[in-house]
């Protein structure tokens, strides 16, 4: 009996089992089709935005520089989780190695945190463009853009390393089932064979605080912008409102997930998986739709790019 207890205490988990979204095979096949379409559209939409911005010199402005970064992050962010989930729909046992789980958590938080910082920078960019148009190119110069890009990627990396380090230092000796379709810090630390109360507080104070603070900054920025727009002529006001509305939609969807998941203790709720689907699959797909269908400059650039491609095809 004592030998069995000793064995159980020293057992090290090398694989985790992902519960996924459903155990029904028909439902899983339907989800495979749906998420495959979502993933392909996300890749095509965001990659097309990146190519269009690089190709069209008229879009070589700070606003589209940040938008290009956003599309790149969305491609990376959705690729961290969706391909693995698509493969798992065909297997009853959805296994992921400990190292692969840690890698997935690292890149998930890297891209998510970087996107949060980027959305905040984009709000500041719109604030300067609308409230201080004559000083815009001085305040948001190309040098500043590059420095801000380096800063947000550095901040995202530091955040991800800190959370991942806290997670891998914990002992894991069973259970091994993660109640989701990908590895995330709150679900993984619940499986640790030790008290994780302090770790949970650190996660809330890190990820939760970042999400809440950035959301407050964004709301304040848009409030100031809306007050400023009251003095504008109707045409300029409509264009500015359209841009801000698109940005605010993305912010609400993305930061809503982060606040919901990371601003509370690591307890599972039925809504967690639904929110996670929006976070990993839906929001990256909506970004290219929102930023192209509501943006005349992007639509004109896309038409120009398509026209050039058709011309080369005929030749």
UniProtKB/TrEMBL annotation:
GO terms for molecular function: G protein-coupled receptor activity; olfactory receptor activity. SUPFAM superfamilies: Family A G protein-coupled receptor-like. The keyword Nucleotide-binding does not apply. Its main location: membrane. Keywords: Cell membrane, G-protein coupled receptor, Membrane, Olfaction, Receptor, Sensory transduction, Transducer, Transmembrane, Transmembrane helix. One of its GO terms (cellular component) is plasma membrane. It is a multi-pass membrane protein. It comes from the Eukaryota. It is found in: Cell membrane; Membrane. The chain crosses the membrane at residues 29-55, 64-86, 106-124, 136-156, 209-229, 241-262, 274-293. PANTHER family: OLFACTORY RECEPTOR. Putative odorant or sperm cell receptor. This is Olfactory receptor.
